[in-house]
Amino acid sequence: MKLPKGWKTLAMDMLGEVQAGRQRNPNITEGEMRPYLRVANVQDGWIDFSDINRMPFSSRELPIYELRSGDILLAEGQSLELVGRPAVYGDELPGCCFQNTLVRLRPIGQNPNFCYYVCYWQYVTGSFRRIAKQTTSIAHLGVSRFAEVVASIPPLPEQQKIADILGTWDEALEKLDALIAAKDRRKQALMQQLFTGSRRLPGSRAWKRVCLSDVAEESSLRNGEKLKRDLLYAVTKAQGMVPMRENVQGATINRCKIVERGWFAYNPMRINIGSIARWEGADRVMVSPDYVVFRADKKRLHSDYLNHLRRASPWADFVGAAGNGSVRVRIWFDDLGRFEFSLPSLDEQRAIAAVLDTADAELRLLRQQRAALNQQKRGLMQQLLTGKIRVNLS
Questions:
Q1: Which sign does the torsion angle of CA 226, 230, 233, 239 carry?
Q2: 100 backbone φψ class: left, alpha, beta (φ>0; ψ -120 to 50)
Q3: 313 by DSSP, 3-state: which?
Q4: Does the pLDDT value for residue 327 go beyond 80?
Q5: Residue 77 burial by CB count (10 A; 0-12/13-18/19+): exposed, middle or buried?
Q6: What is the pLDDT of residue 330?
Q7: How far apart are CA 131 and CA 135, in angstroms?
Q8: What span, in angstroms and rounded, lies between the C-alpha atoms of 61 and 106?
Q9: pLDDT value for 256
Q10: Distances from the Cα of 232 to the Cαs of 133, 321, 387, in angstroms?
Q11: What is the mean pLDDT of residues 283-308?
Q12: Residue 324 confidence (pLDDT)
């Protein structure tokens, strides 16, 4: 595509100064202790200052590694999906430096916010993934490789206007994020009240104290030759039950465990980090024979109620303690069955689940709105950053 008049194709190191961060060396003890940012601090377009480390920087190193307002920080060493993730430093923590898990672009003669959007566009379109070099599970952006990435750059007044337009979209996304966070906090508080009985619904009756094994049972129903391999599923924390990748499937599926609608499944080595799910599909599927599968006793425990309860803090506290903080500890159903909780009547369980379903639906709708708005913003970025749409400078 031909560039608009006045636009140039420039490499990143022509937009400003590209610098690797300072390597952390425990043997270096001389110098002034300074806060520094590392890859864990750089999130998707923002910097997390809640967990800041410190290390000594000499008077010679400070001019090199001290951050200034407008510096763009990018993840140098990360997973392949997150490598190159950028954020702008706004001098929120004066005197802060940066580590070598980050790369810094310090714009010179360019609009810093526009340069951030250029970097962000390269990130979301996969340019940084394509140039990254992967070692084990970590991908490295590489300072020299990043410096050579090219982008279309308009004159400074147009940079400012584009940055202002995209900034307006980011403000709208931030407001939605704040609303989602507030709704989520409200739901968490509501769960705490409903599951402890501090907030009762109309028509409530006396509750009973039970263990999970009293009202749920493990299933060892095997597949045999009933289901085909395309119905083999795995459990993830983020997505629930998803088709298992072919490269981790076993040679045979005869011993895989059947999971029916409303049943729960989990990997006994990963439940303490939240990897448990209820199957929501209409047809039965199967999971690895190493998984635990269990179902609620329909006469005493409603599956919807348990599905919400497993997201509440008492459950997380229990499985976290049972796992002793390690992903390698196996938590079998005999262990999980000792989880103790207060159980209302089935009618009240249904009512509580309905209230929480409504809260979930509100959150789901807001997240869908955010995803749609973010998609629209990306479409606009593509038009603005390539000059397909020109801004009005008057």
A1: negative
A2: alpha
A3: helix
A4: no
A5: buried
A6: 86
A7: 13
A8: 17
A9: 94
A10: 33, 30, 47
A11: 95
A12: 52
Q: What is the pTM of this model?
A: 0.82
Confirm if 166 and 379 have CB atoms less than 8 A apart.
Answer: no
State the pLDDT at residue 259: 96
Does the structure show a pLDDT above 50 at 325? no
Instruction: Single out the residue of 255, 282, 288 nearest to residue 269, CA to CA.
Output: 288
The three-state (H, E, C) secondary structure of 93-128, written as one string: CCCCEEECCEEEEEECCCCHHHHHHHHHHHHHCCHH
Task: Judge whether residue 356 has pLDDT over 70.
Answer: yes
CA terminus-to-terminus distance, the chain: 26
Tell me: the pLDDT tens digits for 224-240?
A: 878 888 899 999 888 89
8 A C-beta contact, residue 44 and residue 105: no
SS3 53: strand
Residues in the chain: 394
Task: Classify each residue of 328-351 as buried b or exposed e, where b means 16 or more C-beta atoms within 10 Å of its C-beta.
Answer: eeebebebbbebebebbbeebbeb
Cα separation, 294 vs 332, in Å, equals 11
For the record, the structure tokens of 318 come out as 């229990």
List the alpha helices (DSSP H) in the chain.
12-15, 62-65, 112-124, 127-131, 143-147, 156-196, 212-215, 303-309, 313-323, 333-336, 346-386
Summarize the confidence of residues 112-128 as an average pLDDT. 96
Q: Is the pLDDT of residue 388 over 50?
A: yes
Task: Name the β-bridge partners of 19.
Answer: 104
pLDDT reading at 175 higher than 70:
yes
Confidence (pLDDT) at 198: 82
Cα distance between residue 165 and residue 15, in whole Å? 21
CA distances from 37 to 194, 209, 305 (A): 41, 48, 42
Q: Which token pair is 124?
A: 């979301």
| Per-residue confidence band for 323, with pLDDT thresholds at 50, 70 and 90 | low
| Cβ contacts of 50 within 8 Å, gap of 6 or more | none
Q: Which stretches within 288-337 are classed as H helix?
A: 303-309, 313-323, 333-336
Looking at residue 180, its amino acid is I
Residue of 373, 393, 332 whose CA lies nearest to 172 = 373
